[in-house]
Amino acid sequence: MSLNLGILLALACAVATQLGFLYKHKGANEAPQVDIRHPFRTARQLYACKWFAIGMAIATGAWFFHVAALAFAPLSVVQAVLSTGVVILAVLAERLFGFQVGYRQWIGVAMTALGLLLLVMTLPASHGAHSAYSLAGMIGFEGAMLVIGALLIGGKHIGAPDHHHGAMLGAAAGVLFGVSDVAIKALTGAGGPVGVLTSPWLAVTVLASVVAFYASARGLQDGEAVPVIAATSTAANVSCILGGIIVFGDPMPGNAVGIATQAFAFILVVAAALVTPPPVQAAAAKSHA
Which of 43, 59, 133, 184 has CA 20 to 30 A from 249's CA? Predict the structure, then answer.
């Protein structure tokens, strides 16, 4: 019963997350450009846009669903359900928001969904919503993910193509959301409100979430909805799956077939990013339609 409830909460989180992202994309493109040098003014300008505020309200509800799901189900199971978000995203974008999801974008979404599905299917069964973790693994993993997030945010300044900047910021936000989710999973076993408030992982959760907020908002301004949001969701899912294995000791496949399948799944996810048209090309295709 506990596991079923966790799965149901994770599914509600997947739908609400993608819906919130689409509303935030609509609002962010009506707001002045995000300027991290003026964080409070930027946040005020974003929230002044009705659609962005609605998106954040929905995203907050999704966050509560996610935390509750983590309390009832193992991290790998929750991520298995959340991986359906990339398909939900494409359907919501096209049916409810009028976005044109091109042929190549549908291929990218399908490849991403298949890669994530293979990844979570090859994870051995994990029983119980355990939150015990390796301290060394936690510090190493969270530190490495923060570095990767920083590199993705600064990608434009270290030679990455400008037309991929929106998707890179989306991926950075996803990695940082993953950092936050792994820390939250640790907090679910902190032993009540006092344990949560005195845990160093609470500060990591807040820091990663705040930086992810600004990276996501700027990414939604610089790129098209489907590629950027898919990059965010995929990066968050992969980060959390890796966190489950490295930090919480979720089991890995015990045979060569399982390991090869996981490697193929990661290749599919990376290839999907290359197949999906960059924002500039997608925008040009729209203007010629």
Answer: 59
Residue 83: the pLDDT is 75
Residues 247 and 182 sit within 8 Å (Cβ to Cβ): yes
pTM: 0.74
- Give the tokens for residue 57: 């309200």
> What is d(CA 29, CA 15) in angstroms, rounded to the nearest whole number?
22
Give CA separation, 53 vs 20, 31, 56, 171, 232, in Å: 9, 11, 5, 22, 19
Q: Which amino acid is at 270?
A: V
39-48 pLDDT, tens digit per residue, is 999 999 999 9
Q: Produce one character per residue of 181-194: b if its CB has 16 or more CB atoms within 10 Å, e if not.
A: bbbbbbbbbbeeee
- Burial-class residue 258 by CB neighbours within 10 Å (0-12, 13-18, 19+): middle
Write the pLDDT tens digit of every residue in 199-233: 989 999 999 999 999 999 999 998 888 788 888 98
- Helices 200-222, 135-153: crossing angle, 10 deg rounding: 20
State yes or no: pLDDT of 161 exceeds 90: no
Gap between the Cα atoms of 227 and 30, Å rounded: 19
